[in-house]
From TrEMBL:
Protein name in the entry: BAH domain-containing protein
GO biological process, one term: regulation of photoperiodism, flowering
Compositionally biased residues, Basic and acidic residues: 206-218
Top-level lineage group: Eukaryota
Region annotation (Disordered) ranges: 196-218
Gene Ontology molecular functions: chromatin binding; histone H3K4me3 reader activity; transcription cis-regulatory region binding; zinc ion binding
Any Pfam family the entry gives: PHD
Keyword Zinc: yes
Record domain BAH: where: 21-138
Keyword Transferase: no
Length: 218
């Protein structure tokens, strides 16, 4: 005679083992990788359920975030070190593999963080795991190298055309770029003869990335 399986119970929260941190659906978590030498997986908890006769077997339904190196196309130069892609890959995992909570920020809020901690990530693409394609499939590009913005790299903004440039792509060191009071790109300087030359007044520039454009003084 067929035994009836114990019913699954939907839980509203789960407390990470050995800690007092509480996970709820919608939270992002780090989960231990099968290969202990690999960094933990990043996932979004969709649901928490308890199974087993005494309801002690807690499992989480997760939606995986892929790191660039886990995607079919691999890591590209414009991918940030803390970049992850929200995939269409769902899984059911034992809650025991949850190592901790993390934050997956939007690209915009990530670039505005005062400091990036170990648990901070950002996501600007959704990823289709079967085809390796991304949504959106187009992204704004900047600089002479026509690359999407990598928030790990310092860029400086032309005060005329508002395009952003990597110091290296315009023959400048990062140190020189940080000292710039004003910046006008080559094209804008050539197009407007009366434009002031890029000034190198040493000012206390904040370490913020990207260097925000300052109000132009003529
Ligand atoms: Zn560039
Ligand atoms: Zn310009």
């Amino acid at each position: 005679m067929a035994k009836s399986r114990p019913p699954k119970r939907i839980l509203e929260s789960y407390t990470i083992k050995g800690s007092d941190r509480v996970i709820k659906p919608g939270d992002c978590v780090l989960m231990r990788a099968y290969d202990a030498s690999k960094p933990p997986y990043v996932a979004r908890v969709e649901a928490i359920e308890a199974a087993g006769s005494r309801g002690t077997n807690v499992r989480v339904r997760v939606r995986w975030y892929y790191r660039p190196e886990e995607s079919i196309g691999g890591r590209r130069p414009f991918h940030g070190s803390k970049e992850v892609f929200l995939s269409d890959h769902y899984d059911l995992q034992s809650a025991d593999t949850i190592e901790g909570k993390c934050n997956v920020h939007s690209f915009r809020s990530y670039t505005k963080l005062d400091s990036v901690n170990a648990e901070d990530f950002f996501c600007r693409f959704e990823y289709k795991s079967a085809t390796g394609s991304f949504v959106p499939d187009r992204i704004a590009v900047f600089c002479k190298c026509e690359m999407p913005y990598n928030p790990d790299d310092l860029m400086i903004q032309c005060e005329e055309c508002s395009d952003w440039f990597h110091p290296a792509c315009i023959g400048m060191t990062i140190k020189e770029a940080k000292k710039l009071e004003h910046f006008f790109c080559q094209t804008c300087t050539a197009e407007n003869g009366k434009m002031a030359e890029n000034s190198h007044e040493a000012t206390a520039q904040s370490e913020e990335k990207p260097v925000e454009s300052k109000r132009r003084r003529r």
